[in-house]
Amino acid sequence: MQLTVNTGAFGKTVELDPNSVSPGGVGTYSGVVLGTGGTWQLNYNLTASSSGSNATQAGTFSITNLSGAEAMYSIRLALPTSAIPGDLTGLFNGALSGTLITQGAGYFRSVVGQPSMWAATTESATVGQLFTAPMNVVRNSSGATSLGTQSFGGMQPSAPAPIFGTNIAINLNFTLSANATVSFSSSLGGVGVPVPAPGAFALLGAAGLAAGRRRRR
């Protein structure tokens, strides 16, 4: 998996290697990533698996703003697949919940101009968006406040996408006050659906034409 955290000059991209992999191919990932100059800290505990026709990533992660000032974050967590480009369309589902944790007063805000706080993508195609309304969660004292929970695509992947791509990713954009932490629980799953070969459409068309002729006789 690849984790990218963009926050001005203090961004970072790291490859996350699994701590272990089950016999069924599910990887477990846990660890800590520190921002340049100690400006932020991201803790993660994730599971993920992928193949040529299905992929899933799920788990929890949190980021703490240690910069001493408000900071805007763009976080992307991408999981590669072994899909062959153009062979599959896709069905997807996903969910996100979050909690703001502060030491004293603090806040969490969505980014003006972004269509959503969380978006799921496969290659360049957006397959789902959550928390599309503007967000401004404020605490006046130390403690925790829920950001809420949203989902798309049902219990089994059902939201259609034009492709099942060579990666699936979650993308988050938000602003966090100094010394605050935001914790997320996120999931994204997808399955590939074979694209019928051109010959299959021709056969279906011929069968329909023949059936129509029989009905007219």
Q: Top keywords for this entry?
A:
single chain, 217 residues, mainly beta, eight-stranded antiparallel β-sheet, 1 helix, globular
Description:
With 217 residues, the protein is mainly β. The chain has one domain (2-216). It is built from 1 helix and 16 strands. The chain has one helix spanning 198-216, and strands at 2-6, 12-15, 20-21, 27-34, 40-50, 54-65, 71-80, 88-102, 106-110, 118-122, 125-130, 136-139, 143-152, 159-161, 167-176, 181-194. The strands form 2 sheets. Strands 1, 2, 7, 9, 10, 11, 12 and 15 form an 8-stranded antiparallel β-sheet that branches. Strands 3, 4, 5, 6, 8, 13, 14 and 16 form an 8-stranded antiparallel β-sheet that branches. The longest helix has 19 residues, at 198-216.
Q: What structural category characterises the helix and strand content?
A: mainly beta
What order do the SSEs take from the amino end to the carboxyl end, as H and E? EEEEEEEEEEEEEEEEH
Overall 3D form: globular
The end-to-end distance, rounded to whole angstroms, is 61 Å
Radius of gyration: 21 Å
Overall tally of structural domains: 1
Largest sheet: 8 strands, antiparallel
Q: Please give the share of residues in helix.
A: under 10%
List the helices and strands and how they pair.
Blueprint: E1 2-6, E2 12-15, E3 20-21, E4 27-34, E5 40-50, E6 54-65, E7 71-80, E8 88-102, E9 106-110, E10 118-122, E11 125-130, E12 136-139, E13 143-152, E14 159-161, E15 167-176, E16 181-194, H1 198-216
Antiparallel strand pairs: 1-2, 1-7, 3-4, 4-5, 5-6, 6-16, 7-15, 8-13, 8-14, 8-16, 9-12, 9-15, 10-11, 10-15
